[in-house]
Amino acid sequence: MAFKDLRQFIKALDKTGDVVQIKQEVDWDLEVGAIGRRAYELQGPAVLYENVKDYKDFSILGGSLGTFRRVAIALGLDPETPVKELYAEYERRINQPIKPVIVKDGLCKQNKLIGDDVDLYSLPTPYIHDGDGGRYIGTWAFEVTHSLNTGWTNWGMYRFMIHNKKHIVGWPRYTSHLGMMLHGEYIPQKKKMPIALVLGGDPVYQMVATAPLAINADEAEYAGGLRQAPVELVKCETSDLMVPANADIVIEGEAYPDRTAQEGPFAEYPGYRMEGAKNGVLWQVKAITYRNSPIFTTISLGVPPDDSSIAASLTAALAIKRRLLRHEVPITEVYVPPYGVTHIVVVGVKSGGNAVAKQIKDVLTARRADVNKIIVVDDDVDPFDFDQVIHAFATKCHPIRGIFCENVEAPKGNPLTPAYNSQERRAYRGAIALFDCTWPPELDRMNEVPVKNSFDTMFPEEMKKKIIANWESFGFREKK
Amino acid sequence: MKKQYVTFVPDIKDLVENSEVTLTIKDLTPGRTKYDARIVKAILSSNAKRLPEGDVLQVRSWTGVLYPKPWTIKVVKDLGDSEAGLPHGETVKAKK
After folding, report:
1. Computed from CA positions of residues A388, A389, A390, A392, in that sequence, does the dihedral angle turn out positive or negative?
2. Chain A: nearest CA to B36, how far in angstroms?
3. What is the ipTM of this complex?
């Protein structure tokens, strides 16, 4: 069942004890950010701030998808759904996209500030971390942009902060889909790029916006697949962009091709604050529309876990899996552990060796190398079980022959990689390391490959069955 | 009552004293418009006594770390909302 709006999702969170509703006054200036951060670090619930200083007509929701439990609830599943099953269900639904439907009106049109009435300070945008460059309006929101050349509409999640009353400045990556449209189409034609920033609505909207889907992919269709019902889209007031009708807040504007402003710094998803930008992507806000009693969605990014590392665990893993399968790499499963903040990925393979490892590295660095460490494991290792992965890494990865390192040329590198230096980050240069934790296929299976020593591999089947059947009668309380 | 601003600088040496410099400042006056950004031409001093008519300027590094001692700023001219330039200009430059 799809959530008709964010309120219905919050009710579902409330039913399972996965949201705290704070009624006492909290300050948008650091307090919301600090409470949200501590809640993540204690693996606590989502937080609904119902009484925000200076903004009595708005609430703020932080951490809507900050745990796998809440992702399961967002997908209408049992909150206890194991991560592996969550991955499988996410994949099943993404593979069944549903086309959006166009509607004439929607909740997000209940209030309109257009032209001279636009005032970004009418929104309860939090100042999240002490030392950030400004109030970040785009943290758990997504941007809608449209290709001039192909007609493709993209949803992406990029950071944006308030510059002043009528301007927003941000730092979508140069190599992001938004960056590609801006630099490949709008700037050469000296045209302003229409943009819409969407907050709230069904929580799967933000989730799908984190997904590194292929160029020309329609995120609205995938969001439909995830919620198992079409997304209702409504036209913006000042452009032809289409946005979800049940969004809480929509901010419309135009990005300049030839004007800029300072952006950042901002404490980002890898858990660190890196440099600000001298030349951010600046846009003038033309309209703000919002539903009655709107809920402003935000996240207090930092060390994992948070919504970014949790949602991207699923969305990045499936994107990587699809890419590898498209190139016929013999993979079993892909896991992006939240604590690896999408910088590390574990790839399970049916058969390993240097050739497969090189193929994986080449595929994952073809356009962008967002990941900088790849761990490849055989199919006797569960990529989702980090104890098993570390064991394989410790024992099977040869310190010389099992490690492949190379530079990633500009602009393929991930500029939000704390390990890189400032020059590398600014130029989008980088590096990648692959750790091959598989047995080379050329080894003689009978004489050269060490035999794994575990309950599963070291004992006859009959013996194992008998022991499992008698487990509790021996006096063990653990599961069989 | 002196106003308070903050600026972010890639290098503290970018803050030149006693001559007009262009910089982005954020207003720290409490209230809804706190952190509002302006691009200004201003005179700066690291010593408040040398610019007694100036306001307080907190200085943060490019990664947001606060320098312990505030500077003083006297805004000479507002330069508008934005500057001419290419979005991602420093990346485009660094790539070359």
Report:
1. positive
2. 5
3. 0.97
Task: Note the pTM of the prediction, 2 decimals.
Answer: 0.95
- Which strand ranges, in their side-by-side order, compose the sheet holding A101-102? A101-102, A232-235, A242-244
Q: How far is CA A191 from CA A180, A215, A287, in A?
A: 14, 21, 19
Q: Report pLDDT digits (tens) over B2-61.
A: 999 999 999 999 899 989 999 999 999 999 999 999 999 999 999 999 999 999 999 999
How close, in Å, is residue B85 to chain A by CA atoms?
A: 5
Q: Does A361 touch chain B (CB under 8 A)?
A: no
| Residue A115 Rama label (left phi>0; alpha psi -120 to 50; beta) | left
**Omega prior to A203 cis, within 30 of 0:** no
Tokens 């919301």 locate to A32
Give the pairing type, strands A249-255 and A281-290: antiparallel
Asked if B83 reaches chain A (Cβ–Cβ under 8 Å), the answer is: yes
Whether the Cβ atoms of residue A236 and residue A250 lie closer than 8 Å to each other: yes
Question: Measured between alpha carbons, how far is B84 from B92 in angstroms, rounded to an integer?
Answer: 15
Q: Length of chain A, please?
A: 480
pLDDT digits over A293-340, tens only? 999 999 999 999 999 999 999 999 999 999 999 999 999 999 999 999
Which residues from B are below 8 Å from A257, CB to CB?
87
